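Bumping my old thread because nobody answered last time. Still need a sequence for this structure:
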């Protein structure tokens, strides 16, 4: 793992989770990976691949509770097409429930080898437009330590990226119309 840059620091165990509880108005998530290696999803992902079973994990139920708390949660996921098996799983088993719970989930599809101008190739959370947490992952999608970014210019840039990404992305309910129930192209 690379050391944190000036104007940032790694978050301690449990510190990241408090941002969701302390968030007053809005939270925005930019996702850029095509696969996330999240241990608590392992069994559900395996079963989805084996028989298309739609499984909601306990952690996702907690997420829908947070999303339904009266604050505005938004996300943009930059996805390469064709979708990876993980993105199909995430769409079927997570995004549909998140949208139903009130999260504004958006998809920004790109072709393999292209990337949207002005959108970085890293993930982050932006809470109340003022607290920025960069999500650091290994190339295989394993989470490393989240990093609190305090540099004002980076926070301003994250707000501009959020606005651009939301402007060019497609709302998930509209995006999924191009696919069957298991997120395979029609």
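Sorry it took so long. Here it is:
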């Amino acid at each position: 793992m690379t050391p944190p840059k000036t104007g940032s620091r790694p978050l301690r165990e449990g510190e990241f989770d408090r941002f969701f509880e302390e968030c007053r108005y809005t939270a925005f998530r930019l996702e850029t990976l095509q696969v996330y290696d999240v241990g608590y999803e392992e069994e559900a992902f395996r079963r989805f691949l084996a028989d298309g079973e739609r499984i909601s994990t306990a952690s996702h139920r907690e997420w829908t509770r947070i999303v339904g708390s009266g604050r505005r949660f938004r996300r943009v996921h930059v996805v390469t097409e064709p979708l990876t098996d993980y993105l199909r799983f995430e769409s079927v088993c997570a995004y549909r429930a998140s949208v139903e719970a009130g999260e504004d989930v958006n998809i920004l599809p790109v072709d393999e080898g292209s990337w949207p101008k002005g959108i970085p190739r890293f993930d982050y959370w932006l809470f109340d437009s003022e607290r920025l947490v960069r999500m650091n992952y290994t190339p295989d999608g394993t989470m490393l330590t989240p990093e609190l970014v305090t540099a004002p210019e980076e926070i301003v840039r994250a707000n501009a990226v959020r606005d651009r990404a939301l402007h060019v992305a497609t709302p998930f309910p509209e995006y999924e119309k191009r696919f069957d129930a298991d997120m395979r192209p029609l």
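The mean pLDDT is 91. Let me know if any region looks off to you.
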